[in-house]
């Protein structure tokens, strides 16, 4: 999203490499390396652009008018060549994409604090090599599976410029739909089943899996012994230093508290992205892929009342699990829904209900204040630089709940839908409303004795073939009454990978800028680091607080799904740590405990809610209870009601007016401060002017 940059490209044997110039490419200084055969290619004729979704990264290329057709033709040919190379010669494909030097970083800690045994380093380096090979096997098994299910084409290997002459094969097979057979010599070939290749791949997969298990077990034993030594050392240091807190304190937490373990997100280098609204896309896709398819006492003490206007109802017990686990994947092909929408905004595309989770976008906004105690602390912190650290950490914590949630999407609120969350135990009360339908805009407001939080958010999302990018638009605001501070910040880009097959995962990347509009004494920049090949940067964040002259006052680091630490290792202090996940969270949509509680409709609370509250949505309630058929039926009915209401407004030349939010002079949505007063007197149950949403 930073504009276009001129690069020098080389396409060789289905691998597209690029650098700043030819000389850099010859020296091996690559900016990126893309396996075209494993990428989804989208062609935008109108703007002469080509998009390559390589799963973990999305590349956007613009080509000059005179070369565009030639680029498209060569990419298609190399793509077919590469796919056949993988399918026919799975054991002989040593790609430059994976010929990168393997390095291993001992740890982030000072050598004086922790020493990783040599045996564990050797084991982990062996694992790294095994994992690279295992990744190649998985890619080959995926391509072989897709290729063997596609129709055979009477085609022999042809000469691709720059590729050399591959050996002829009696079992050539391709699933590419756009390749002209006139460009190749034809012969009548039998359709391959490739049972031998498949069996060999499975045997190699098992062999590598056993090797990885053995070496990891050995590494774990060594690291466990070292962990015990470190714990003992830290305990002694804590006794000597008194109450000084260390980030690497002894605990039963994961070893990530001591150092960042290597994570193997095998990605190619990131590229400069630029979204486009041009709809003249041609999807160059070679395969058709189907979608992979209790209660307890409330913890925590009450800090303060949630303010006047509350219901006076305190839920003594909150549920600890959903009524029903997540249903099994549907047989409906997600690819059939998405294949015609590559490069387009998906906000207007109807999705089947089995892709949803039993929460909606308004409730997702409420999840951002789960760790509101950070703002409580900020409001009682005298040092303005330290206050900024707490506010920035709160902004980072808003992403924590998304870590286990890449597998499903929230319900889209209908126009006029509302949601409230009154939590005296946490000291805040929250309201949200869907204030616009085209474009969809959600507004929320949360107040407490210690802070006020508000935002209106609009999302722009695009599907690129394997991944979906979500670019939020809008500004988040927080005020701290204790000091008169008013903080503003932007959200970063999110991307969901493996949309169609494999394990979906989400990453957030970009730069978040936080400023205090009431004072220019300090600013803060938080970088959500985009994952790089064979590194531990997955989910990593880095932040600095600077004074008005740009001098760094505080620095902090961590991972947005785990915790944030201030200072430098080994003496960094833990500012925030994510709450532990509920038992069996993977069976319940990956919800946090706070998320589990959001859609609970307590009998004592029910009379106080307006009829537009999300908890009364029948489709969402059916899904929560495991009734997929009922949820789909209700979802279609609710969407039909919304279309009918919109038609009535258009016929009468009227526009929708939000009930609890109003538009400001700068086109942002602010609370009208009427919700809690109306709720208290005369109460929503006595009003009859609410629209029928469901």
From TrEMBL:
GO terms, molecular function: cholesterol binding; sterol transfer activity
Protein name listed in UniProt: Oxysterol-binding protein
Biased composition (Low complexity): 282-292
Gene that produces this protein: OSBPL3
Localization, UniProt: Cell membrane; Cell projection, Filopodium tip; Cytoplasm, Cytosol; Endoplasmic reticulum membrane
Known role: Phosphoinositide-binding protein which associates with both cell and endoplasmic reticulum (ER) membranes. Can bind to the ER membrane protein VAPA and recruit VAPA to plasma membrane sites, thus linking these intracellular compartments. The ORP3-VAPA complex stimulates RRAS signaling which in turn attenuates integrin beta-1 (ITGB1) activation at the cell surface. With VAPA, may regulate ER morphology. Has a role in regulation of the actin cytoskeleton, cell polarity and cell adhesion. Binds to phosphoinositides with preference for PI(3,4)P2 and PI(3,4,5)P3.
Entries under PROSITE patterns matching the protein: OSBP
Protein's membrane topology: Peripheral membrane protein
Organism: Oncorhynchus kisutch (Coho salmon)
